[in-house]
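Tutorial, part two.
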Amino acid sequence: MGSRLQIEGDESVLVRVTHSNIKSFSAEIRFSLQMTVEAVKEKLWKKCGTSVDSMSLELYDETGAKISVLSDNARPLGFYSPLDGYRLHVIDLDPSSVTSGGWLEDTSLVEKYTISDEAYGKLGGTFRKFKETLPLKQPPGQESKISDNYMGDLCANIKIGDRCEVEPGERRGTVKFVGQAETLAPGFWVGVQFDEPAGKHDGISIRFLLLQGERETLL
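Running the prediction step on this input gives:
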């Protein structure tokens, strides 16, 4: 038993961590074998939200067999002989824990903020208020017409190859086209190739954005 405590100061282990209440939680975390079990719990508390006093730890090998329960907070982690690839399972013993009941995973359980149409109408700075001012700024009969030079000045500051973020959606990508596109509609357009696959174009999505209603932020 004494040999298990002979741990070199620079030794560490990479284990997979799971959680009893958060089924989607799975992370690979490296721990020093010199850390006490209590220090391991402190580190895990910051990762998963289970308090140290409410946390029980179980160690499993690669086959899924339970090796031990880390029951002594004063022992170094190395005492329990974990190896790379082992699994450290967090059990939350607190029935009123923030991790219980699926609150951290199922957003349908979270009460959504709502506002009545009447209350929304009294707010200032909303999109509804903005739309109400548009007819006042446009000549009669021109409310929906977009000129051929619409947003031309803004396009002059956007270059092919610029990095940008498109909202809504917070999707990032690279500018691939800037200018007028007669086959689409009047006005100036920006073609953005997203970093992540979207659409049905072999993982590459280029979206043409009319500079109206969308917001492009150069990075």
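The CA atoms of residues 102 and 137 lie 50 Å apart. In part three we will examine how such features are distributed along the chain.
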